[in-house]
Amino acid sequence: MRTRCAVTAVVSGAVVLSALAVPVAAQAAERTSALTKSSPNDSLGNTKFSNAVVNGGKDIVLGTTGTKSVVVTYTATDQNGVALTEAFLWQGTDSSTTEGITGGLGTDDDPDCTETATQGVYKCKAVFTIHPATDMKDNGVAGTWKLFLGAWDLYANASYNDDVTTAAIKKAATLTADATPEPVRKGGTLTVTGKLARANWSTGKYAGYVSQPVKLQFRKKGSNTYTTLKTIKTNSTGVLRTTTKATVDGYYRYSFAGTSTTAPATAPGDFVDVR
Prior knowledge:
This protein is mainly β. The chain has one helix at residues 132-135, and strands at residues 16-22, 31-36, 43-44, 48-54, 60-62, 68-77, 84-92, 101-106, 112-115, 121-130, 143-152, 158-161, 166-171, 173-175, 178-180, 189-200, 205-208, 213-220, 227-233, 239-245, 250-256, 265-266, 270-272. Strands 3, 5, 7, 8, 11, 12 and 13 form a seven-stranded mixed β-sheet that branches. Strands 14, 15, 16, 17 and 20 form a five-stranded antiparallel β-sheet that branches. Strands 18, 19, 21, 22 and 23 form a five-stranded antiparallel β-sheet that branches.
């Protein structure tokens, strides 16, 4: 894997703002990239970017360990041809100031672009390898990220767009459910406990997710459909506890819809035999 020292997008009339730290190299090596000076939702140059899709249109969900490979595809169009493109994922309000950038991720290598049958139209693919343990030290960076794309045509003219599309980077969540007693007499009271936790990138561990609404659901034996019985909230440590009446054999589970920063989670169904 090639280590990128610096990538500088130089646009006529603009200057390079600064080196943006992007610690996404293998073995936790820190690499740096640079964003061209621009204002929010800004673009410049003749190369146009379209059809950008990050991670197949799905949320990027990160736990606390391992790596996540994220593929970004897009189209670059320029009648002067495209010699090279660059891609960054960044978070913030203004890519023209270091204060306006709260997070940045660079690609492993330069994106791969191939000209189509239509002259000047290129299909491109970029790969980001994200290491949660080193790239996501700040829990606050969960949420919406923007895709910055830059390009050089065959005459060395540069273009960029700092907000081609957006993607959500979310924390992974875990959820459990345990219904007792089992077996239970018909009409008896079941106590269903569980816990909702989510990745904490600062500590590298999972921690209870506090005060979150979670649905208690039931699926009758022989059925494929879960029905929501009630919605309760997690306590100060992410623990769930509630009661319900047992009427027929079936499966009980908890289901969490997720938030703007945390992925959905569903506990495996816990079977209860009613006698």
